[in-house]
Amino acid sequence: MHWVDVYAEKLLELGSNHIIESGTGISGQPHLGSAGDIIYADGIHKKIIEMGGSSRAIWAMDDMDGLRKVPAQLPKEFEQYIGQPAFKLPCPDGCCDSFVEHFTSPFLEELARADVKPEAVSVAQMYIDGKYDEVVRIALEKASEIRVIFEDISGSVREEDWLPFFPICQNCGKILSTKAYEFDGRKVKYRCRGGIAGKADIPGCGHEGEVGIREGKLPWRVEWAARWSHLGVTCEPMGKDLTAAGGTYETSSIICEQLFGSKAPMPVPYEFIVMSGKKLGKSIGRVLTFGDMAKIVTPEISKYFFFRSQPTAHKNIDFEFAIPKLAEDYENAERVFFGDTSNVPEKEIEDIKRSYELSQISGMPDAPGQASYSHLLSIIQTNLDLEGNVDWDGVLKTLARTDNITQLDERTMAKGNAVKTWLDTTAPEDVKFAIQKEMPADIELNDDERKFITELAGAISKVNWEAGLIHDAIYETSQACELKAGQCFKALYKIFLGKNRGPRLGFLLASLDRDFVVGRIEEATKI
Residue 26 in 3-state DSSP? Predict the structure, then answer.
């Protein structure tokens, strides 16, 4: 059974009404991992409804959190706002009403195009509107109990006068630099003495004052518990580090149950996404977003990336070399869904089919997609005009010849556009090519390569013009000549591309006119 269905069934055993929450700090552009958090929640939410239960999918925007450092994608001038809550920050480009809107609106639009539409909730607004009043008062009145829980669970010791509340300083506007020390049931007294965010010191302005309970926030472990209680959250995906023994989830669960009288939600731990061995985050420079991924492999394939394996499975993303393989895995899942299970272990069939189903956006298609990503990679590059634009008529003519496709449907066009975007953005140079209209003038072939080309000239003219059969003819000819296949492929890349490597040769040659290919190979026998 697919992991999404397992979680949904477990939740429905506990009750019929559910709130599936996800949450993201708004300190810049939400990255691909942030999208995964919401996509996991969305899958469980939809399954619960499908099984007859009631569910809401809520995305909590942690916009009351203070800015801890300036990510690379923000202007250096934002250093003046370090320590201030995100909801008070200006738009970095002056195009939106606020910092939060600037980063969350496009993020939600990207997800919506993949049919992931959570209810977005501003945490700052919940404080400001008084929706957190009750839980904030409970936390402040039971500060000593929270201190004991912190020390017992994580060994973290707080000062005797510590209160679980960070006021927004009335003088400097910072929330990361204040310390609350007294609560009279209505107001919180504080000092802006400075604080620490990660390894960075956040200087305070020295101001002393008092604020109401709507003018600040609870510390994260207390706030998480308060949110669960206030919203009635029953399930939440979270990074697996949070579920470690003595960690945030354990601490927040005890606070939720002992102080707020609510049951902690079922956790869905997930592995962080890594790129080149580094965890994705706003601090690595250019942020990789769900929208970036959807543009180069389609939204469906992007969702499949998350659903194809357990949330805790290792997830490595490479926007350069791994994209065709990801697309190929999705296309294989599509074939399995439509009945071609010949190359799949029986025990994996149902999970593969379910992962494909969960990845769809506008209902289930009636048939498999028309052309593969790898095939389009070759076809599009052989049908570019002088300005680099795709000649779609030429693409269709090639597909009609190679795949008996007489019309470009919406899915094939979407995949073709994704291929073109990948080529224009993150594709490695190794996969880019241009068919040489004339035999490259400086080409050289050694004796073995000439022998292979001569033998292939006779074999290739008899082959049915299909990628697999062309590939087989090349391989079989290399074996007959007692040569390594790689050396023979290299010779063909040289005469067609003027370089030593390129895309899958069967797909490449099948995308070209047969007479052109045969003529070029015969010409090469004379070199």
Answer: coil
Please report, for the domain that includes residue 421, its CATH number.
1.10.10.770
User: Strand locations in 154-221, DSSP E?
Assistant: 166-167, 178-183, 187-192, 195-197, 200-202, 208-212, 216-217
Residue 285 scores a pLDDT above 60 = no
Largest CA distance in the chain: 96
Beta strands in 97-206 (DSSP E): 119-122, 166-167, 178-183, 187-192, 195-197, 200-202
Instruction: Tell me how far apart the alpha carbons of residues 205 and 84 are, in angstroms, rounded to a whole number.
Output: 13
Q: Do residues 251 and 149 touch, judged by C-beta distance below 8 A?
A: yes
The domain of 97 spans 1-273
Contact 285, 292 (CB under 8 A): no
Token pair 């040289």 is found at 494
Angle between helix 220-231 and 248-258 (nearest 10): 50
DSSP characters over 383-452:
SB-TTS-B-HHHHHHHHHHHH---S--HHHHHHHHHHHHHHHTT--GGG-----SS--TT----HHHHHH
Cα 178–Cα 180–Cα 184 angle in degrees, nearest 5: 145
DSSP class of 346: G
Same domain? 190 vs 261: yes
CB atoms within 10 A of CB 406: 8
Q: Return mean pLDDT, the chain.
A: 93
68 and 189 together in one domain: yes
Read off the tokens for 249. 């989830």
> What is the pLDDT, as a whole number, of residue 156?
86
**What per-residue string of b and e applies to 300-336 under the rule 16 or more CB within 10 Å gives b?**
bbbbbbbbbeebeeebebebeeebbebbebbbbbbbb
DSSP 8-class letter at 19: E
* Domain stops at, among 405, 431, 457: 431
**Residue 409 confidence (pLDDT) above 50:** yes
Counting DSSP H helices and E strands in the chain, the numbers are 20, 15
Reported as a pLDDT band with limits 50, 70 and 90, residue 401 is: confident
pTM of the model: 0.91
In tens, the pLDDT along 486-525 reads 999 999 999 999 988 888 888 889 888 899 999 999 999 9
At residue 58, the 3 state secondary structure works out as: strand
Closest to 70 (Cα-Cα) out of 281, 283, 220, 287: 283
Question: Could you tell me if 187 and 228 lie in one domain?
Answer: yes
Helices 3-14 and 349-358, packing angle to 10 deg: 80
Spell out a b/e string for 471-496, using b for 16 or more CB atoms within 10 Å of the CB, else e.
bebbeebbeebebebeebbebbbbbb
Environment class of residue 209 by beta-carbon count within 10 Å: exposed (0-12), middle (13-18) or buried (19+)? middle
User: Which residue type occupies 524?
Assistant: A
pLDDT tens-digit series, residues 41-64: 999 999 999 999 999 999 999 999
Crossing angle (nearest 10°) for helices 323-337 and 373-381: 130
